[in-house]
Structures are given as C-alpha cells and as structure tokens.
Amino acid sequence: MTTIRAEWTKLRTVRSTWWTVLASVVLMAAAAGQLAIYVANGNTNDDPSDDAGVVPVGTVLVDSLELVQYAVLALGLLMITSEFTTGTIRTTLQCTPSRGRLLLAKAAVTAAVTFGLGLLLGGAGALVASPVLGEWGAVPAAGTLRDVVALAAYLALIGVLALGLGAVLRSAVLTLTVLLAVLMIVPVSLREPDINALHRIADALPGEAGKHLLAGDGQPYPPVVALLLLAGWAAVALLAGRAALHRRDA
C-alpha cells in the first residue's frame, strides 16, 4: 500500500496529469458533439443514403473513443517513461527495489485513474451528445450504463498495457507509436486481404478485442472473452516490463 500511495502522490502532483485529464474531457466532448451533429444532419437532409435513424448515445461514445483513447493512454505510458527521461527511476528503484512490486503499484494506480477517467468521459460525452441528437438519440439507462462501464474498463486495461510497454521501450514517443500500430494500423492491415486466418489474428489483438468489448455484439466472441483478451495483453505487457527492468539498469 505504501508503494501505491507513493505512485498516486507522484501522479497527482504532476501538472501534466491534470492537463491530460482536461484534454481528454475536451476531446470527448468535441468528438461526441461532432458525431451527434453528423447523425442529426444525416437524418434531416435530403439524402436518404446517410440516414442513421435513431442512434443510442452509447454508440456515439464508443465511436468518439477512437481518438480520445490516445490522450488517456498518455497517463499510462508517462507513469514510467517520464521517470526514465528525468532519471528519477533510480530513486524510485532505491525506494522500491522489487521491480515486480513497483510495476504492480504503478499498474494499480494507472488502472484506477484511467477507469475513473473513463467513467467521467462517458458521462461528459453523453451529456453533450444527448441534447445534440435530440429526437434522433436514444438513452436507455441500462444500455448507456453498460457502454460507459465497458468504455472505462477498456481504457483501464489499455492504460496498463501502455504502462508495460513503456517499461520495455522507455520512450514515450516510441511507446505511443507501437500502441498506435497495435491498436489501429496492424488490425486494419490484417483485414485488408480476404484471408480468414489473418482475420482471426486481427481479432486477437488488443485493439480489436476492445472494439468487440465495446460493441457487445457477441461476434466473433462474447464481451467477456474480449475483456479476458485485453486483460491478457495487459498482463503480458507488465511481465515484459518487469523482465526489462530486471535485465537492464535504470
């Protein structure tokens, strides 16, 4: 608990943390509002081809996350990469020599903060999108709550994934580049050829697992499997980060 408290203190006393939170909220509000405008305009213009009909607010929240997630990921990767950049990792390891315990403490703080931030983003996005959608929006209580919680869980797990990769790569830019590739570029590339084996590989990647979790449609696997896949990727990243910390000096 002492290590967790120390990591939480470090995170909350850095101004970049709060700037990242603010940027995430602003991005979510802007993205949700813009997507809601697209839906409303599409349903009221003269072109029937872009009529979306009545859209659940949760759908707008999930679509908005495509961009917003990268701002949230910054919290996870900066938990470790900033210490390598400034050299404070040496002090941290002197205070907590166990690499595994240190990473677990950082992971606990990252998961808790990004989950809470996910709930905040879901609420902010719903508050913006609902009035913009007007009659073209549906806000079922159970469905919207499920979407917000799924969104928060997804952000928490990929935040831990970012932390683990940051421990391996030690560079914020390089970690963010790898995350962009794993979450977006590689899955899209694997789906380009019409080859079932490549599609199955894409479905096992964290970005696609996140999409299946957020969609909740049970195809090609149910949301609980998607959640387990994401948790598995996060665990593998943490193990790799622990191995890298053991193998290399700070």
UniProtKB/TrEMBL annotation:
Keywords: Membrane, Transmembrane, Transmembrane helix. Pfam families: ABC2_membrane_4 (PF12730). The chain crosses the membrane at residues 21-40, 67-86, 107-128, 148-165, 172-190, 224-245. This is ABC transporter permease subunit. It comes from Verrucosispora sioxanthis.
